[in-house]
Amino acid sequence: xxxxxxxxxxxxxxxDAKHILHPWEYFGDxxxxxxxxITSGDGIYIYDENNNKLIDGPGGMWxxxxxxxxxxxxxxxxxxxxxxxxxxxxxxxxxxxxLLAKKLADMAPGDLKHVFSTTxxxxxxxxxxxxxxxxxxxxxxxxxxxxxxxxxxxxxxTHLAASVTxxxxxxxxFDLRSDTIHFLPHVNPAKRPKGMSLQAFEDAKxxxxxxxxxxxxxxxxxxxxxxxxxxxxxxxxxxxxYYKRCWEVCKKYDVLFIADEVVTGFGRLGxxxxxxxxxxxxxxxxxxxxxxTSGYLPLGACxxxxxxxxxxxxxxxxxxxxxxxxTYSSHPVACAAALKNIEIIEREKLLEHVREIGPYFQKKLHxxxxxxxxxxxxxxGLVGCIECSVQQLEDQHEDDAAWLAFDTDLxxxxxxxxxxxxxxxxxxxxxxxxSPPLVITKEQIDTMFAILREAIVVTMHELQxxxxxxxxxxx
Length: 475
What we know:
By secondary structure, this protein is an alpha/beta fold. The chain has helices at about 10-20, 60, 70-85, 95-105, 120-140, 160-165, 200-215, 240-250, 275-280, 305-310, 330-345, 350-365, 390-395, 400-420, 440-465; strands spanning about 40, 45-50, 55, 110-120, 145-150, 180-185, 220-225, 255-260, 285-290, 300-305, 375-380, 385-390, 425, 425-430, 430-435. The radius of gyration is 23 Å and the shape is globular.
């Protein structure tokens, strides 16, 4: 090892394998993984240990809105660190948290004017769910605690957030809360029954929610939590009016509505928040993170309706304190990063840019549907997914574990071929998801999807040769 605290590439990989336990670590391969080393980033690009330039297709983890290597972000963070690197959020306040809270309140729809700062998306979701419990207890409704979520939803990795996550192909070895958690069937239009119209599918999905509320009892159902678009579940875009109609069902039965905008917030769909601007919904709470700082520092937030606060505060409080919080809530340095990030998005008109370039992004994404290996192309704004499948085999498979392994290998092949050609993708089993930095141009979109097309076609030819079959596009 060198003496200036730098490591060789081999030392980095050895230390990583032996000492870093990664998110979603596959324990069949612990200490043997050979991960790509990322050394730097600039704009929409990241660079690996061999100085290969890669388009960052997933934008980190759906979060690098303004792109990499923004010196003014570093300057803002450094200035705040020198002025005030930390503040006790339990009993004190400071300028940057107060400015950010007011900014978020101004951006939020309706009366969502109270902001609880968290460390990320998972803790924002846990905060929202704990607030629902607190709210109903203070209101004297201790039995109104049931939570409704959806299959393929992803809401985080902390305990409550993980409990309401419905990733269907993840084998889960954790003990999660289940007695008051309910999952609605999938809302993926591409997988609706053959012959069912999109409108009939939407009607059925809304009915699923209402039926479940009535089955449990409206007096027991506390909240419905939903992403406007199911991001980590494969960028599933429900039918057009589904989200709004679910919100209306919730209002009908006095069920709170949490909009999980950890991915869709801060420009991904061309607006600060998508719930009202895109879907016509003013939720009771919004959770956000990721694009709030463009990933430059960890920060999340739970935005809560003034109405809910009023109903359990002052003379209605019963002496209650919201006994929930984090050492790093309202962290002044993270808040400074968020404020500078928002300033950049506003100054460079990135929301308008997404609304302008989003249709082009979706057009190029959907053009890949002509490849026989592509089962579905879907997305909205600057987020998308290409799902690949060998349909003639999937229709015959009986062993779910073996089929999951096949699909995982399929995604890994596409990922490898993309990376060899200058594109980083993030395979979710057999799905390639995209949420590139919002600064991406049309020319860069062309390059990104040209590489993806070539990688999928090469993978398809490999599979045809290995399996001895000819892949054709399903009718």
